[in-house]
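#struct-pred
JK: can someone run the complex with iron/sulfur cluster? inputs below
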Amino acid sequence: MSRSWHEECGVFGVYAPGEDVSRITFFGLHALQHRGQESAGIATTDGKLIHIHTGMGLVSQVFREEHLRRLPGKIAIGHNRYSTSGASKPGNAQPIKGQRRPASEGIALAHNGNLVNTQELRRRLKKPHHFPVETDSQLMALLLCTSPGRDWIERVRHTIPEFRGSYSLVLLTRDSLMGIRDPYGVRPLCLGRLRGGWVLASESCALDHIGSQFVREVEPGELVCIDSRGVTSLMIAQPAKGGRALCMFEFIYFARPDSIINGQLLYPVRQAMGAQLAVEHPVAADLVIGVPDSATAAGIGYAQASGIPFVEGLLKNRYVGRTFIEPDQRIRELGVQLKFNALPEILKGKRVVVVDDSIVRGTTTPRIVALLRRAGAREVHMRVCAPPIRYPCFYGVDMATQGELIAAHKSTPEIATIIGANTLGYLNLDGLIHAVGLPRNIFCLACFTGDYPIPSQPEMERELTAVPRGDREGISIL
Ligand code: SF4
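RT: done, structure tokens with the ligand placed:
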């Protein structure tokens, strides 16, 4: 996606004695690359020591054959990072190794999510420590390592209920793999079976790619511990209000369309969003296109429901991902042209419906509309699978501050004018829930409604409701 917001991580874990666990994790991370592209890492254990390799960039940039060979063992965890807490730098890459005495009592941790009580947790750190604590994930590792308890299950049970916010975690000890999901279930985590072993992954698409079978999702508040005795499940945390808060944007955009979340395969869910858009915002047009890849399924859904033909009028240059090599200004100004190419032969003189997943700041959408007009589109009708985003996210999505969100300050007709579209239609919140086909009360919808299911610390609220941080979009689309 070319927007200025990002999912903040993908996690993966495997317990499989006799298998090449580092290579399995490498391929698992590959399948989860869309969840984070700033850094990647794998930790393994051979039962004695924890081996780790992390680096900046995509999985394929971080790992060479020799790195995988130096990661032996029967258990592995892996991580793809997009930073939402702490800087994007090698020292903040994950997995994070946490030390206890003796050294064989260490752990490695990989985290997807964002804690909202880090100030409170930092105040609880009584003793001086030599562990770097720049990110919420490092704080979690430190608190786990300094927690009382005879074994890791006791330490996890003691520490995890203190964490508030979103967290899907995989933990590696010298003899076990653990998966933990926060009590609201904000981020996904699933369990799979693999030839005499077990796998944990942020999304089920990662299980498919390594030939493992989806078993079930880890429940909100559940600890799954996998060791030589098999799988043990414990409920270790309860939500304060007794509710769930699964991020709706996993359904709209973040997760891959071939993943299953909360029992729903996302591809047909996204088609249903497009179909619902056609019901709510019909328009006379010649063609429907979906902004690739995230809105392709929704575009097809709109076309099927409206009877207007679907075409690929916008093609994506798939290999222009985010890079840690910042381009120079001249290249950056090319903007969406680096990522998309419009086809004049298809678009010339046509009235075009463009389906997209969301409008966040409203700085990228005008560029897409302009690209279509330059390719000859006579009319451009923008249709969006999400309701207007008016509130910032505290649960780990690097979206924008409230001041940067265009729908927080502009009406829909004003936004249509700003983006240069003939018409603009957002999916209604009730229509979105209808399309997803699951009860409203299992979702976090805070960025649409302002109703935050998990209370946040005041510092975070002040920061995210602050004035604009400036346009970073030129960097983040690359
Ligand atoms: S606020 Fe929005 S993006 Fe953040 S977790 Fe909730 S639904 Fe997802």
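RT: quick notes.
Residues 322-326, 467-478 have pLDDT under 50 and may be disordered.
The two ends are 10 Å apart (CA to CA).
JK: thanks, will look after standup
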